[in-house]
Amino acid sequence: MSKKYYITTPIYYASGDLHIGHCYTTVICDAISRFKRMNGYDVFYLTGTDEHGQKVEQKAIQAGKTPKQYVDDVVSKIKDLWKLLDIQYDKFIRTTDDYHEKTVQKIMEKLLANGDLYKDAYEGWYCTPCESFWTESQLKDGKCPDCGREVKLMKEESYFFRLSKYQDRLVKYYEENPEFISPKSRMNEMINNFIKPGLKDLCVSRTSFKWGIPLTFDDKHVVYVWVDALSNYITALGYLQDNDENFKKYWPADLHMVGKEIVRFHTIIWPALLMALDLPLPKQVYGHGWLLLGGDKMSKSKTNVVDPHFLVDRYGIDAMRYYLLREIPFGSDGTYTNEMLIKRINMDLANIYGNLVHRTLAMLEKYYGGVIPAPGASTELDEECKAMCEKLLDKCIEDMDKLDAPRALSNIMDVLARANKYIEETSPWTLDKNGDRERLGTVMYNLCEMIRVANVMLQPYITESPKKVFEAFGTPADKQTFESVVKFGGTIPNTQTTKMAPLFGRIDEAKEIEFLNKYSEDLAKKAEKKEEKKMEQPENTVNINEITIDQFMTIKLKVGEILTAEKVENADKLLKFSVKVGEETRTIVSGIAKYYTPEELIGQQVVVVANLKPAKLRGIESQGMLLCACNDEDIVLVAPIKRVKDGSEVR
Ligand code: ME8
User: Fold this and answer.
1) Which residues line ligand 1 (CB under 6 A)?
2) Minimum-distance ligand 1 atom for the alpha carbon of 229
3) I want to staple 187 with a disulfide (CB 3.0 to 4.6 A). Which of 165, 181, 195, 496 is the partner?
4) Rounded CA gap, 360 and 245, in Å?
5) CA–CA separation, 600 vs 562, rounded Å?
């Protein structure tokens, strides 16, 4: 029976378009999966989308859609992208899938029943884009330490998971399984930054928004997105469902491949949750590096995104896959540059691979009418090339055991480069001129076989060209297995070859770079314009003709009492207030100075938009907005018609 191999990518946030940094994780996992399949493993490759949470809810509102409509659209684009990149996954999970939602509810019930959940009040700093809580000391200059964006102080009733209880068991697991957190440097990071300062219990439910999985035992609460998302790795296999065959067969995961910024969720929270559920732990979490652009992480929000559709359209799937797999040193960050992309295509794919294939086909045509000749006696040189080919499979297995695709590809390219050198060394045109048919036949046969061996080994990484090459050489594609390259000589003599279109045309580097730089500049300008427009039209004034009740409920209106009021210096229209909203006191700046004196407002009750993104007005951070009735002549503050407790919700 073949050995199983369960590999996962993170599930992608369904909150916008993906860039080639995202494609990196999926392409690596695809190459590993294809390699393992060819190496005889029974592989299950899972990917999917992370669709709940406040970030998605807000994006949906901005787009004037319901959250479900919004994620449906994004997910369909993500699936198209994986198709474009020829990603061969076994399952695509969506966290809005019914079976997933029900199972997450059961997981939460189980945690409650085991005493791993308790209810308390939560106060902490929350980064909405990262969906992460931080303590005061973890913040960097008062901002999110992961993405550098603003954080919000949140206070709400929540359920907590007893994460602290699992600290010692986690450390023991790390010690006993040194490969669990890879590469090793990431393990030290986890221990020093998170474990040593002491794990705190984790807030795992939220009441401040609705777009999530409700708790069955307290439906005011939705499950914290990271618990919802991490559970995908077992819900996708049928955990706690009627058909749990895949769960029994594939769990625990052999590899969770993740970007380095989410290693902590996968190596602390996830194993602790699994311990609480009494389940075996994954064998390895690999934190790969980032694809950088101009020194920064590529990111949707930084508008420095490199569009995979454009690149695939211009250079082809194989060029993109090859670039991602070959160029970025595995485990470390790598910088995307147009120059390196073009260089890689020219150096490896056009000069080494494409050139070899075309020269060989052309010589076969010229000397043998396109038919592959049978080999004769071998020379020392031939034996050296054969030995190199026969070692290739083992080398690649060794590399891929370390998940080192760049190295495996470099070893395959070495064989192709060796074949190019073999042509120079044997000089088939001289053999032809001298009428040395036997030696010419041997040389041509060996060239075809070297191409075949390298082509077999290229199949997990690039998916189109090997097929085309097999076809041109008349090689039956279904027989090009790893076993077929153990011994040199799998090419069948007397096979008719056919002409093929150039695999990879050589690109004029200078011209192409000029074109790409101009293209990037235009894109950046467009993005800048879009950003400017957004500033002119703040997010909350996006034109929505009709909103649903769910969308309305995302706007938090609360009653507040004005404690102090004063004029803002050098600003005729502005008044600065401190407003008591429940237990907190907020600073709010409002443009109503022409309509009220500060004194008449002290002690008044008003309606505050409480979840408005803070904005700076004349250097003062305004933490909310006061509702007013407005017309051409007047602006009048809106207030409850009788006094109520401040902090009361308005809906
Ligand atoms: O983190 N270079 O989703 P996501 C390399 N939903 N990899 C990059 C990258 C870059 N510039 N930018 C993103 C999430 N990635 C969560 C996961 S799993 C239970 C929940 C990688 O859409 C990133 O590191 O932000 C991650 O591995 C993947 O893209 C998805 O990121």
Assistant:
1) 10-13, 21-22, 24-25, 50, 229-230, 258-259, 261-262, 290-291, 297-298
2) 19
3) 181
4) 49
5) 10
Taking the centre of ligand 1 as the mean of its atom positions, its distance from the CA of residue 189, in whole angstroms, is 19
Task: Indicate if the pLDDT at residue 591 is higher than 80.
Answer: yes
pLDDT of residue 542: 43
What separation in Å is there between the alpha carbon of 18 and the centre of ligand 1? 9
- Of 25, 46, 333, the residue with max ligand 1 atoms within 8 A of its CB, to mutate for a pocket test, comes to 25
Tokens of 305: 């995104």
Measured between alpha carbons, how far is residue 114 from residues 108, 117, 218, 273, 275 in Å?
10, 8, 17, 12, 11
Supply the pLDDT for residue 420: 98
373 CA distance to ligand 1 middle (Å):
50
User: Of all protein residues, whose CA lies closest to atom 29 belonging to ligand 1?
Assistant: 22
- In Å, the largest CA–CA distance within the chain is 109
Question: The tokens of 140 are what?
Answer: 């960097």
Structural domains for the chain: 337-485 (1.10.730.10), 539-650 (2.40.50.140)
Per the prediction, the chain carries an average pLDDT of 92
| 103-151 tens-digit pLDDT | 999 999 999 999 999 999 878 888 887 877 788 888 888 898 888 888 8
Question: Any residues with CB less than 8 A from the CB of 626 and at least 6 apart, and which?
Answer: 577, 579, 588, 590, 592, 606, 607, 608, 609, 637, 638
